[in-house]
């Protein structure tokens, strides 16, 4: 099933801004800017029908990996393998060095090194019960991996420039967005294209997919928003949105509302059914890089390039005792200051009013949103943080470091439980199974 999440970390914005401020080659910068990342859990990645040669990681199909992926007596996954979740916490990380590493989070050891890509890894998604993973690289290919053996099951070459990919492991289908504006729906079990949709001119900077209703929300480079219905094979709604490029976006398909931010420092809430602007905010002096919405209680947290975050109380006007129409203009937000650089990513636990922010200053901050104060400051990275994953129940977090390290934190004590070293470049993405 598709999981709906309010948190969004737009790593494409992160990498684009980092590249812009550094001396990276233009080709790499272009690849970074075309790489898009959306909702973290089960909706991420792609495929194609070329069966590639197996590339076994340097550590090989170790006994430790086989031990932790024990077969199940009653479950069968894709590829005919036994399907069961790992018996202990694992993480799979991808790096700018073009490799992926499978980590045992209890010992901090590398269990597999997955080699095969010829460019930086932009995104990875794991189906832990079937111990398979999909990776998306700057070499414009996608690979399907068997984590138990470290082998490439398929090299998924699309033959044209990819902008974003999203996959639903349950249905074994993926949707890819391409530079020419077209979309392709894939069958991951065969690698075949199920259908292709011509969306007209205009590249999409952001894409949010709701597979249950077969709808796709796309934000184009010219500021236009489109809602595509894949069953009706066409645009069902289109409107002119921001005047500048969108930096991040998230949608609540049950409420038919989307939230987006652009480089012009504007944040807007939209009615997806008719394109009406429900609320417009200009909270920051620099672009918003990440946003999170508490749709239930009407709160919005924005993280910006201006080193700050802002917490907004947003409520819809009522008609006949029910929320309807545009949102009322909120009061002054709670202004959260503390980082000495851009705030690239923020993850929120709305029920407990806590948030974790990852900064370009290499600092991870734990916030009490009810008081607007920093509870803990977690330091150790020598360069910027590319992103953060958090498991609020176990009070654990994982940070992706520009210094090439992947760190596991105890949020109670504020200390690093493991410093996972091995990547020769920035850790750009990860998928964590906290168990």
Can you characterise this structure?
This protein has 435 residues and is mainly β. 6% of the residues lie in helices and 48% in strands. It has helices spanning 11-20, 26-34, 63-68, and strands spanning 7-9, 90-95, 100-104, 109-114, 121-127, 132-137, 141-146, 151-157, 162-168, 173-178, 183-187, 192-197, 204-210, 215-220, 224-229, 234-240, 246-252, 257-262, 267-271, 277-281, 288-294, 299-304, 308-313, 315-319, 322-328, 334-337, 343-349, 354-359, 364-368, 373-378, 385-391, 396-401, 406-410, 415-420, 427-433. The strands form 9 sheets. A 5-stranded antiparallel β-sheet has the order 1-21-22-23-26. Strands 4-3-2-35 form a 4-stranded antiparallel β-sheet, with no helix packed on it. It has a 4-stranded antiparallel β-sheet with strand order 5-6-7-8, with no helix packed on it. Strand 24 and strand 25 form a beta hairpin.
Give unreliable regions as ranges.
1-62, 71-83
| Percent helix | under 10%
**Number of helical regions:** 3
- Averaging pLDDT over every residue, what do you get? 79
Radius of gyration: 21 Å
Protein structure class = mainly beta
Question: Which sheet architecture does the biggest sheet show?
Answer: 5 strands, antiparallel
- Looking across the biggest beta sheet, what order are the strands in? 1-21-22-23-26
CA-based shape: globular
End-to-end C-alpha gap: 19 Å
For the secondary structure, the number of strands is 35
Beta fraction: over 45%
